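Support reply, case 0932

Customer input (verbatim):
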Amino acid sequence: MIGTKCVSRFALACTAALAVAGCSSGGSSDGGLFSKPFNPFETPDWAKPASVSKTSDLGPSGPVGPDDLVGPDGRCGAPVVQAAPQPEAGVVVTPGENLAPGGPTVLGGIALGMSECQAVQRAGTPGNVSISGGDKGERSVVLTYVGGPWPGIYRFADGRLKVIDRAPAPPAPPKAPPKKKKAPAKKSALAR
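Our regenerated output:
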């Protein structure tokens, strides 16, 4: 008996829903309450993205001016030409070695799309600078920071940051050899 009551109530509810759906709105042109077809698998409007784009915007992507490019010494802006002392024969000098310690001048992180000088302002003077031409003739710069607030290897193309790699780990300090314990002196048989 209980099963037939539930079935009859369900049938009555379905009949009432169909009757309401078939009613018109009294001559108005909006089509009534159920004028839009129902698709249970359609994504609701509130769950759809506002704008669908296939590429992500990583910030500025236009050309970079000469004031935003790093010089061979790791400094920003137009390079100041000075007579540098010549190193002794056989001595390797890395960029930034003879410079005053250049810490960050701007607080914040480093993100893809930044110019070379924006990265240097946040990370300080790099430990190594490599400037070359890329595959397509564009400017290619690699800044290496082993220490500091943002250690890493930063790769730029046409003045914009394209790749950030993890900095090489500093070499571990050499371990001291273990101390040898002195063996206790053997007692001789004559000492008894």
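We compared this against your earlier run and they match. Two observations from our side: The chain is about 15% helix and 15% strand. The beta strands are 128-133, 139-145, 152-157, 160-165. Please reopen the case if you see a mismatch on your end.
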